[in-house]
Amino acid sequence: MSQSPLGLSEDLLKRILYLLGALVIFRLGTHIVIPFISQTALASLVEDNRDGILGMFNMFSGGALERLSIFTLGIMPYISSS
After folding, report:
1. Model-level pTM greater than 0.70?
2. 3 state DSSP class of 3
3. Gene3D superfamilies attached here (predicted)?
């Protein structure tokens, strides 16, 4: 088993890099907004329900609901198309 300069095995290093790449893609995807949605109306809706379930969902999604990004949709478009 070969070692990297940090003392980690090559397999572990590949897994860590894969994880970091997935996190970068997720964070970028939370900033790509869905077109034709009124951002001001959505912001007021989230602000009005900040203490309710929408605020909790927005917190767990990393603010993706507040921006209504493509990752807010989740798996529903795939289920609808099949």
Report:
1. no
2. strand
3. SecY subunit domain
